[in-house]
Amino acid sequence: MRFEAGAAEQHLVRMALQIKKDTTSQYSELMPVRPCLPIPFFGPVARARVITFGLNPSSGEFAKKRNWSRVTEDELPVELVNYWNSETRKPHSWFQPWETVLSELGVSYTSNAAHIDLSPRATNCRKGELRALFISMLQTDAAVWIEALRCAPNCKLILAAGSATNDAKGYINEFISNRLPGEMGVRLIGPWSRRKGEGQTAHHTIAIRGGPEIPFFFCSTGPSRSGTVLINACLENIGKLKQHLAFDS
């Protein structure tokens, strides 16, 4: 199934391209050597019932054999809406654990699920002496994913996982709660207490000013490596996650 890129998806791509253009020199130290397009979403975000949420696109997404260099800025919205139905490139292997979870929820990236990130830019660094710069980039780029949620009227559930900054306040839910300026208009509602060990989970609600309030499930371990920890953490909570979708059946 092929999708048309609607006005919302086209708007998101233009927004990501403009933010990248305006701040390219500011964040140049973080950028990979190979040219990388900004990716504000993967899949049909405007029709997605479930959205998975991560840090940023992998620089490996833009390996030469994947042919992103042939995609023009005008073609980018259609390429992204049809990321999982592309005849040009296979989806990045990073998404496989999430697809396993989505199948348990009765949805799929190929039809009614999508992915967004804290930043639409692929980078080569987020630690060490460049950590402060990386955090600044995530704060600048937050406007893109916040707008993406406003452009996803069918979304009933967000599944987020992993770390943003690899520090004491580094998980994605902690970044949203503690590091985004108040004027961004985002609140993450619900308890969270950091503990030791992998696969910690929390059930939040994310509230967007002028937009929706959406259930937001978080797992501290992302889909990298085998994804087993993430899959098991989601399966342990699958009953509650399905409830968020049941009202929209």
Structural notes for this entry:
The two termini are 21 Å apart. 31% of the residues lie in helices and 14% in strands. It is an alpha/beta fold and 249 residues long. It has a 6-stranded mixed β-sheet, sandwiched between helices. A hairpin with a 4-residue loop joins strand 5 (201-208) and strand 6 (213-219). The protein has one domain (7-246): Uracil-DNA Glycosylase, subunit E (3-Layer(aba) Sandwich), CATH 3.40.470. The protein is globular and about 45 Å long. 41% of the residues are buried. Helix 1 runs antiparallel to helix 4 (131-150) and helix 3 (96-104) runs parallel beside helix 6. The protein has helices spanning 7-23, 76-81, 96-104, 131-150, 172-178, 228-236, 238-246, and strands at 50-54, 113-117, 157-161, 186-189, 201-208, 213-219.
Based on secondary structure, the structural category is alpha/beta
CATH architecture: 3-Layer(aba) Sandwich
Catalogue the unreliable spans: none
Q: What is the first-to-last residue Cα distance?
A: 21 Å
What is the helix fraction of residues, given as a range? 25-40%
Quantity of strands, as a count: 6
Report the mean per-residue pLDDT as an integer. Answer: 93
Helix and strand sequence: HEHHEHEHEEEHH
- By CATH, the topology is Uracil-DNA Glycosylase, subunit E
Q: What is the domain tally?
A: 1
Name the CATH class: Alpha Beta
Radius of gyration: 17 Å
Sequence of strands across the biggest β-sheet: 2-1-3-6-5-4
Outline type:
globular
- What's the tally of helices? 7
Percent of residues in beta strands? 5-15%
